[in-house]
Amino acid sequence: MSTHVWLSRQLRRARRLTALVLAGLQDIWGYARGSGLLNDDAPAARLAQVLKTAHRLDKGLALPEPRAGFGAPVARLLQLQLATIDRSHWAWQQGCAALERHQHFSFGSPALELSEPQTRAAVLKEARGDFGAVVRSRRSVRQFDGSPLSMTALWRAVELARLSPSACNRSGARVWVAVDAPVRERLLRHQDGHQGFADRASAVALVTVDTSVFHTVGERHQAWVDGGLFAMTLVYALHFEGLGTCCLNWSVEPKVDRALKRSCGVPPGEAVVMMVAIGGLPAHYTVAHSPRRPVHEVFRILDKSGDCVDPEAGEPEA
């Protein structure tokens, strides 16, 4: 290798490393500014604290054998937090309900009567629909029929997506849906990878997470976890509604992220997770070949006896 080639390679690496460090610093500042880490007195941060603390009480009641007297300090904290938020907000009502349930437990009510009852038979009846068919039939669609979308169908899909798991039930995920062509174009202008198909979609959704619901350094990546869970449920729900979807990647540099937010009014404190192109399905269309990794490359069992699944043996017996 010549000296010139070696130097060129090192300079290229140095530029990439510098860009990565600068992007990381901007990510750190963005999280610090938008989250509740430094701004725990912001209204959204106070609401999130109430939801988080109420959830601590409620999940304690849902344990197999809740310890007598558990949660007294947490209940006192929740009382203080409730005093900082608007009584008309649903989070205040949820917090008060959690306090009431904890108080009943403290006075001797059985925990089984204070959590939401479930039966195995009922859950299995609901859960054992043909989910496999839903998952296997959903594909990334890049051919749309151009028909207008039903707002009712979109509403139903978002109603399901909001039920996705989130850290301590804080529900920070948001979805912004652009239906008008100029607004769709404004969003897509900042995304690289939609060319040739997304402009024909009937809507473009932007999935974000309000970072003010997070309060610790350890939660600095939680927005992408919660947002990813929300986005996957949303995509499945849209598929269930008979709509085609294609997830549009949002792995961009901070300057592109800022430009998108400025262009469509998304608050700086919301983390953009991804876009989703949404449209009606044509009567006949094609999708890309997209083979996935085989199960034996994905499945791992943490067990001292080693991997319990023999890749050559296929699916293990139930």
Question: What does this 3D model show about the protein?
Answer:
Helix content is 46%, strand content 10%. Among the domains are: 43-113, no CATH class; 132-280, NADH Oxidase (3-Layer(aba) Sandwich). The chain is globular, with a radius of gyration of 24 Å. 27% of the residues are buried. It is α+β, with helices and mostly antiparallel strands.
Tally of strands: 4
Q: What name does CATH use for the topology of the domain at 132-280? A: NADH Oxidase
What is the CATH C-level name of the domain at 132-280? Answer: Alpha Beta
List SSEs in N-to-C order.
HHHHHHHEHEHEHEH
Helix content: 40-55%
User: Nearest-angstrom radius of gyration?
Assistant: 24 Å
Structural class: alpha+beta
Q: What order do the strands of the largest sheet run in, or round the barrel if closed?
A: 1-2-4-3
* Distance between the amino and carboxyl termini: 57 Å
Name the poorly predicted regions.
none
Task: Please state the overall shape, judged from the principal axes of the Cα atoms.
Answer: globular
Q: In CATH terms, what is the architecture of the domain at 132-280? A: 3-Layer(aba) Sandwich
Strand percentage lies at 5-15%
Number of helices: 11
Rounded mean pLDDT score: 90
